[in-house]
Every structure is written in C-alpha cells, then in structure tokens.
Specification:
Elements lengths: L2 H37 L5 H7 L17 H5 L8 H7 L4 H26 L7 H28 L8 H14 L9 H25 L2 H6 L1 H24 L7 H8 L6 H5 L18 H6 L2 H13 L5 H7 L4
Helix pairs in contact: 4-7, 5-8, 5-10, 6-10, 7-15, 8-10
The structure holds zinc ion (2 copies).
One zinc ion binds next to loops.
Keywords: Membrane, Transmembrane, Transmembrane helix
Subcellular location: Membrane
Protein name: Lipid desaturase domain-containing protein
C-alpha cells in the first residue's frame, strides 16, 4: 500500500476517534449528573436542620443558631407556639366522644374479622395470602399519603364540621410535631379507626351471610381488605412512634430500623417546611417513588390550575400565628 495512503487512513481514523471522545465524555458526564440528581437526598441535612423542629434533641444542644432575637422569643415550632396552643384548645368533648365510639366499634369488628380469617388460613394458600396482605399494606401506605396530602394541602379550619374536627390535628402537627407523643391512645387513633369501620362492616356481613363456597372464592380479597384495614387503623400509632425519640419498645425500634413501619429519620423529611413531600406515613415505602414521579407536585399544579386555590395556604397561615 502507498505509505501516503496509509498515513491518510490513519489520520482520518484518529480524527474520527478524537471527535467521538468528546461526545462520549459529554454523554458520560450527563449520565453522571442525572444519576447524582436522581440519587440525591430529597432534603439535605442542612434543610432538615434549619427548617424542621429538632425533636430528637430534648436538651437543645444542637439548637439552630440565629442572630434573630425574634426567633428566641416567638418559637417557630413546639408547644409554646401561639397557633399550636390555639389549635390544641379546639379539641372538644364532642370530638373525644366520637373518637371513643369509633375505637370501640373498630376494635370489636377487627377482632371478629380476625377470627373469621384465622380459622380459614391454610398452609397450601399461604403464599397467595402473603401477597394479598402485602398489597393491602402498600395500599394503606398510599391511602395514608393521599389523605395526609389532601388534609395538609387543602381546606381550612373554618370549614364546617370538617375543619375543627378533622383538619385541626394536621395543622397542629406541623407547628407542634411532638404534641402527638403527648396524645393518648384514643386521640391518636380515633380518626383512623373510624375510616376502617365501613370496610370492616362489609367484611363481617359477608362472613356472616355468604355460603362457605363463596367465602372461599373471595378469601384472598378478604385477606387484602383485612390487612388494609389493620394498617390504616395502625397508621397514626405508627406515625406517633416515628416522632417518639425516647423510650420506645425495642420491637418498635426494630420494625422502624428494618423499614417495616415508618422510620423516624425518614419521616423528618416531611416535617421540613413547607411540608410538601413524603406524605405516606404507614410504612413510607411509597414516599421516594412518588417524589421522583413528582406525583404530589403534579396533582397540586392541576388542582391549582383548575380551581385557583393555593396549596397549603391555611397551613402557612397557622404557621405564621407565632404571637
Ligand atoms: Zn403533614
Ligand atoms: Zn409527623
């Protein structure tokens, strides 16, 4: 071969290689940036530190340093926040009575349905039952997120019936997150127990009235609804544990550490003002994927476009009632 031709071929190949290298480098660097953004924490330690209450530090050794004297006299969070005190005082006797009745009915129905289901459990259908139960738990996590998001984001305390009875605890919880740890079993669980009652009534009715063949045919669905009801009912107790940094039973800490129920550090992400993400509070399994899909943001944007209402307007109003 002509030496000149060989040189030309080599030069062309080298030029092509050289022009391909920057493209490859650019693609690799874009992929790196995308991966870094994708895997970045939803809230950084700095954001958590500066924009949420330091509820795991009772001695305030890590209190946020600030030059503002206003911060020291009018607390941004906690039981001395004026808005939190006003909201706590709106807890009425009527509301307490409703919670007591709901807890009683729910526990009775739960016990009856548990007996109906446990006596029908068979080893041969155990794997399908476990899958049905897992689906129930995931659904409960999603429902906890949807209800929590709706209550945090929309409506106001001024709404008749709904406001003072059902939205009040959500507003209070953002400005005094540890108040939940001072609530007793009834106040913590009353509303969640209430929402499971219709499904538990239907399950009981089916077990009592349907022929055994029909009960067997629908058995996996029954297991699904049973687990869904249990986890929906347990959600606010699990949520309370996620705010309890001292004196938790070891088995609860174990469940949190293995992410079977909502872990404490995980839930701190929701409590970073303005409380716009990580709404799922049963297991918290769906928080990360929903955040990456921008699920809540898209939903809020569509509602704001359709109605003109600003998300979290009432929540912000209460947060600002500091004095
Ligand atoms: Zn919230
Ligand atoms: Zn919380």
């Amino acid at each position: 071969m002509d030496p000149m031709k060989i040189t030309t071929v080599m030069t062309t190949a080298t030029m092509e290689e050289n022009s391909a290298v920057p493209h490859l480098e650019k693609a690799a660097s874009t992929a790196c940036i995308m991966a870094t953004n994708f895997l970045a924490p939803v809230k950084t330690d700095k954001q958590i530190y500066e924009n949420s209450m330091l509820e795991d530090d009772p001695n305030a050794n890590s209190v946020v340093t600030t030059t503002s004297s206003e911060y020291k006299t009018v607390p941004r969070w906690g039981p001395n926040h004026k808005g939190a005190q006003e909201l706590a005082n709106l807890y009425s006797t009527g509301k307490r009575t409703q919670e007591c009745i709901c807890v009683g009915i729910c526990i009775t129905l739960m016990a009856v349905n548990s007996v109906f289901i446990i006596i029908r459990l068979r080893l041969e259908n155990l794997s399908s039952i476990v899958i049905a139960a897992l689906c129930g738990i995931v659904t409960a996590d999603f429902i906890s997120g949807l209800v929590h998001w709706a209550a945090d984001t929309w409506g106001s305390i001024e709404l008749p019936i709904l406001g003072k009875n059902f939205l009040r605890p959500f507003r209070e919880h953002h400005i005094d997150p540890t108040s939940i740890t001072r609530h007793d079993f009834i106040e913590t669980n009353g509303d969640n127990f209430m929402v499971t009652i219709p499904a538990l009534c239907k399950l009981t009715w089916d077990f009592l009235t349907l022929p055994e063949s029909e009960i067997q045919r629908k058995f996996l669905w029954s297991c699904y609804w049973w687990q869904l009801a249990i986890f929906v009912a347990m959600t606010n107790q699990i949520h309370k544990w996620s705010h309890t940094y001292f004196g938790l039973p070891r088995w609860v800490v174990w469940l949190q550490e293995y992410r079977i129920i909502l872990p404490r550090r995980h839930h701190r992400v929701h409590h970073v003002a303005p409380h716009e993400t990580y709404f799922c509070i049963t297991t918290g399994w769906l928080n990360w994927p929903l955040e990456k899909l921008k699920f809540w943001y898209i939903l809020e944007t569509l509602i704001e476009l359709g109605t003109g209402y600003k998300p979290r307007a009432d929540d912000l109003k209460w947060a600002q009632k500091r004095s």
